[in-house]
Amino acid sequence: MAKQQTPPPSASIGALATVALVTLLALFGALNYYGFLGEYSSAHTDPYEIGAQQSRFEQALAAVPPGARLGYLSDLPAGDQETAAFNIARYVIAPRLLVETGGAATTEWVIGDFTGVGSPASIGAAHNLRLVKEYGNGLVLYRRNSR
């Protein structure tokens, strides 16, 4: 059998130095990224104000039975802004089911989320809905009129 040769000590030191350098660079990169995330998150707050929406919807949700499906009615034109408003409302009222405006005819309770244009009572009446309460800031609760 041939005798195994051991690498010269300088090769082991070189490998150890390389591993130490790579470890230090990885640590520096992680710390740098952590600092970047802190600056980024303080500069880019929640643009949709989800926390504010939760408190905005709180009273209306308290007035609705816990298992009720809710319809959603908005005066925003169809598009990205209306989709975002619907998805925010859907997130806020979870785990309840929220049905878009087109499906509102199948729900007893409907949340109205308006920008302030038009009368919520007349908008609801056009959809066979009775205004239960206006909560301010464009949020209203409707109940379907019995036929």
Compact summary:
With 147 residues, this protein is α/β, with parallel strands linked by helices.
One letter per element, helices H and strands E, the order comes to HHEHEEHEE
Helix count from the secondary structure assignment:
4
Structural class: alpha/beta
What is the helix content?
40-55%
Overall geometry comes to rod-shaped
Approximately what portion of the residues adopt beta-strand conformation?
Answer: 15-25%
Overall pLDDT confidence:
85
For the biggest β-sheet, the strand order reads: 2-1-3-5-4
Give the C-alpha Rg: 29 Å
The end-to-end span amounts to 98 Å
Report the major sheet.
5 strands, mixed
Poorly predicted parts: none
Topology, number of strands: 5
Number of domains: 2
Notable characteristics:
147 residues, rod-shaped, 5 strands, alpha/beta, 4 helices
Model description:
With 147 residues, this protein is an alpha/beta fold. The protein folds into 2 domains: 8-45; 50-144. It contains 4 helices and 5 strands. It has helices at 9-43, 50-62, 80-93, 120-125; strands at residues 70-74, 98-99, 109-113, 129-136, 139-144. The protein has a 5-stranded mixed sheet. Helix 3 links the parallel strand 1 and strand 2. Helix 2 (50-62) packs across helix 3 (80-93). The longest helix is centred in the N-terminal third of the chain and has 35 residues, at 9-43.
